[in-house]
Design brief:
This protein is of the alpha+beta class and 129 residues long. The chain has three helices and seven strands, in the order E-E-H-H-H-E-E-E-E-E. A hairpin with a 6-residue loop joins strand 5 and strand 6.
Length: 129
């Protein structure tokens, strides 16, 4: 089957977030699609674990800014669980570790945030780190 020679496609997001990874399963027949979906389901635990490791890598080592852009990232001490890629999860996927100093009161904060965009209707509450 060539890259564009398929009749059926199922696209699955790895979490509820629009920014999450997407898995595309393509087939020519309903029977072939069924077999492929069963195969994906057999690997769902491995797919979820890989997604958490990748998300953890982005959290630990965010993309750097160019020399002309001021650095806006804060140095943060991450809990051991984040460094090992085992961040807590919610119904939307792997949570994102956030920490810093409050601009409002000058006190440090640290929490695990839901991966959905801010102010999403079904966004989960943060969990203290």
């Amino acid at each position: 089957m060539s890259n564009e020679d398929w009749k059926l496609q199922v696209s699955i997001r790895t979490s509820g977030s629009r920014d999450s990874d997407m898995i595309n399963i393509r087939a020519n027949t309903a029977e072939e699609l069924s077999v492929l979906l069963e195969g994906i389901s057999d690997y769902s635990t491995q797919i979820a674990a890989t997604s958490k490791v990748i998300q953890g890598a982005y959290t630990v080592s965010p993309l750097s800014t160019s020399g002309s852009t001021p650095d806006t990232t804060q140095t943060q001490s991450l809990p051991t669980t984040q460094v090992q890629g085992a961040s807590p999860t919610c119904i939307h996927g792997a949570r994102i570790y956030r920490s810093g100093i409050s601009k409002k009161n000058g006190k440090p904060y640290a929490f695990w945030a839901c991966p959905t965009p801010q102010n999403t209707a079904d966004q989960c509450k943060p969990v203290n780190a």
